[in-house]
Amino acid sequence: RNEDIEKVQKNIEAISGVKKVSLSDPDQELELYIKEMGEEFAMYRGDENPMSYAFFVSVKDANKIKEVNEQIRKIEGVRASEYGGTSVSQMVQMLNKIRTGGLIFVVLLSALAIFLISNAIKMTIYARNNEISIMRNVGAANWYIKVPFMIEGMLIGLLGAIIPCLIAYFGYSYLYDMMGGQIVNSMFGLLPVNPFGLQVCGLLLISGMAVGLVGSFFSTTKYLHWKR
């Protein structure tokens, strides 16, 4: 009955850690089965459909998928609840390691970018040493001298982020199409290219400008302090 199905869905949604619950009717389940197993099962379309209603549950934290699965099994009206077992847990651990390694890699690249931009701005400052000395002699404030170099650093960071932005967007789009929007199976779905790809590009551009700002700030602050 529809009332029982709605009750089960509400009970699943009430579980801590559940992000989204989607209902799949018997016809949708059969089409999914045909897609995965082959057209020979198309003979079951119509009144001979043996499939039943199913819920697709998304969790907020993949590390708690086993706990959520155990709670779903205890709900009255749920015949079975599967999440993939040990293989899924191992994949979650592997993805967590990849994410941690990627984060460390990004931090190291950011530190390298700050160092390179800092040196680039330092060389620019040395090349304009006479102009800066004249500005200080006529009473220019430190911030007035700093701002143009900091803007230059932000522009360097912005330009440097454009190529990674394009690679990330088109690379992820290609990966999404190649893998059919999922990793291994439908349990690990990839986020749609839009708006996720645009969000990543925006984050890269903002991060590039921030890194350029930090690098140029260090150079200008150190130089002006030394001039005093």
Low-pLDDT stretches are none
Broad structural category = mainly alpha
Task: Compute the number of helices.
Answer: 7
Largest sheet: 2 strands, antiparallel
Structure description:
- The protein is mainly α.
- It has 7 helices and 4 strands.
- The protein has helices at 2-13, 26-37, 65-73, 86-127, 129-137, 142-179, 193-227, and strands at 18-24, 54-59, 182-183, 185-189.
- Strand 3 and strand 4 (185-189) form a beta hairpin.
- Helix 4 packs antiparallel against helix 6 and helix 4 (86-127) runs parallel beside helix 7 (193-227).
- The mean pLDDT is 82.
Compose a concise summary of this entry.
The chain has 7 helices and 4 strands, in the order αβαβααααββα. It is mainly α and 228 residues long. Strands 1-2 form a two-stranded antiparallel ribbon.
